[in-house]
Specification:
heterodimer, A: mainly beta, 7-stranded mixed β-sheet, 50% strand, globular, B: mainly beta, 6-stranded mixed β-sheet, 9 strands
Chain lengths: 125, 110
Amino acid sequence: QVQLQESGPGLVKPSQTLSLTCTVSGGSISSGGYYWSWIRQHPGKGLEWIGYIYYSGSTYYNPSLKSRVTISVDTSKNQFSLKLSSVTAADTAVYYCARSPLATVVTPEFSFDIWGQGTMVTVSS
Amino acid sequence: QSALTQPRSVSGSPGQSVTISCTGTSSDVGGYNYVSWYQQHPGKAPKLMIYDVSKRPSGVPDRFSGSKSGNTASLTISGLQAEDEADYYCCSYAGSYNVVFGGGTKLTVL
């Protein structure tokens, strides 16, 4: 079955760029059929959607984070990545990668059926 | 976009039914049939329980059901079991490929 695994530094300094990678196993990103997302959860708080990417490279971002977020895909490595620039303590969170099946030829289900285990990222000097 | 509104906590005894509400606006919950619900146990990743308002993924017990009326969606858990104790989050499409989550509800099984 498809599994997702996040990886990246657990500690990032303020003003720097947070970079995470999600490795997909048990299925191919390039086969299409799914959108791939990043979602975060601040400590003790709710979930916040960060953005989607399709294997073709089409991206959609949360308007509140759009100016700082870049999501990219590397189909050769079966991975997709998150970059969040100019981080502050407010970006400290558990970051999850997740999968959304297609609802139509071009749109996702807007729900997330498979999640990675999550990775904690702390922003601190 | 604002977070969807959920009660902070609900509780019920084993065997009972509980309903968790999720209130949004006509721009999200009320405007689309793309409401989903997630169960999250402490220290674990969320798990999809309901999608498209009322559909259950394979493997989710039929004790879990979803519905929507106007700008409010609901998750009902019947025949409450101890393992249902968890945090529950609703999620809705909000247009332009945007997605918004609720603040979460802690379910306690008494």
